[in-house]
Design a protein that fits this description.
Helix content: 25-40%
Structural class: alpha+beta
Number of helices: 7
Largest sheet: 6 strands, mixed
CATH superfamily of the largest domain: lpxc deacetylase, domain 1
CATH topology of the largest domain: Ribosomal Protein S5, domain 2
CATH architecture of the largest domain: 2-Layer Sandwich
Strand content: 25-35%
Order of helices and strands: EEEEEEEEHEHEEEEEEHEHEHEHEH
């Protein structure tokens, strides 16, 4: 059996939150066996802890947000993907803000930090979600999105995306093993269309977004005054509205970088199942909402079948042990 792992040492990162715009310090710590991923809000009274599990996701609008008893923390998916890819089973994450820092918009800095501190092998066996005869599929008829998990002894993801955009129509990305994540997926950045920005700001989102932590797609010409207004809202330099293209400061790392980032998000959101998946994921136009639906479906089935079966097995073994125990008679010696 494969053994569980945790971090060998702690590490600290800091930066601004993509949606809240709040500066955050985040610390990743070793954790004991069977601990899983837990997040501590160190800025709140009592330093409450949230289990990073699929059923605790309360919002999926442009990011994954956990909420337990009114305590929440958001944009966790990039860090979760990095932990999962590095095969970390147990980690306590301390953060002093309601959102993880976006850093450069990818998972690469999380991944590099994990690699730098190293991992520690523990004694307990790893928890696997292994269903040799069970397929899972979730669909959203309104968006055309679908995700499915096909049984396999190998983990992998096939991700296909499509948009009504002359610059970003259809793209695909794939991951055939966790070992490919560092080279092929970790550095892929989140992305946004310029035409979405005003609406996102109106929804109190992307307060910390800029041209350094996201791929920004300007795919259709808009009036110069409107383009200037968006630039001012984002706090970036004004540009010529007649020139369409990718307008972030750092050019694309890959021609299909958006698809690679969507794959990264799928991995991070599915890391909330609470263990390691044995299966191949096929994602068509994925998003945080449908990613979470698949993670919930997997967890629900696991709890209702595997955990319940294990519970009954233990109860049966306990009852058999009690029944097999020799009867004890009470007797007294007769003393002269």
């Amino acid at each position: 059996m494969v053994k569980q792992q945790t971090l060998r040492n702690s590490f600290l990162l800091e930066g601004i939150g993509l949606h809240t715009g709040v500066y955050a310090k985040i610390k990743f710590n070793p954790a004991p066996e069977n601990h899983g991923y837990k997040i501590m809000r160190t800025d709140l009274p009592g330093t409450p802890i949230i289990d990073a599990l699929a059923e605790h996701v309360m919002s999926t609008e442009r990011g994954t947000v956990l909420n337990v008893d009114g305590i929440q923390v958001g944009t966790i998916e990039h860090a979760m993907a990095a932990l999962y890819a590095c095969e970390i089973d147990n980690c306590l994450i301390e953060v002093d803000a309601p959102e993880f820092p976006i850093l450069d918009g990818s998972a690469i800095l999380y991944l590099k930090s994990i690699k730098e501190v190293g991992t520690h092998i523990q004694n307990a066996d790893r928890k696997y979600f292994d269903f040799p005869r069970k397929k899972f599929k979730v669909m959203d008829p309104q968006t055309g999105s679908s995700l499915q998990m096909i049984p396999s002894q190998d983990y992998g993801i096939q991700c296909d995306i499509s948009f009504d955009s002359p610059l970003l129509k259809k793209q695909s990305a794939k991951l055939d093993s966790l070992q490919e994540f560092a080279k092929e997926i970790a550095s892929a950045r989140t992305f946004v269309f310029v035409r979405e920005i005003q609406t996102l700001i109106q929804h109190n989102l992307i307060k910390g977004g800029d041209l350094d932590n996201a791929i920004v797609v300007y795919d259709s010409v808009i009036p110069q005054d409107e383009y200037d207004k968006i630039a001012d809202l984002m706090g970036v330099e004004r540009r010529d509205a007649t020139k369409v293209g990718y307008i972030m400061n750092k050019p694309l790392l890959y021609t299909n970088e958006p698809a690679r980032h969507k794959l990264l998000d799928v991995m991070g959101d599915l890391a909330l199942v609470g263990g390691f998946i044995k299966g191949r994921i096929i994602a068509n136009r994925p998003g945080h909402k449908i990613n979470n639906q698949l993670a919930r479906a997997i967890r629900k089935y696991y709890i209702e079948t595997v955990e319940e079966k294990e519970k009954k097995r233990r109860e049966k073994a306990r009852a058999k042990k009690v029944a097999a125990a020799p009867a004890v008679s009470n007797f007294y010696w007769n003393c002269p």
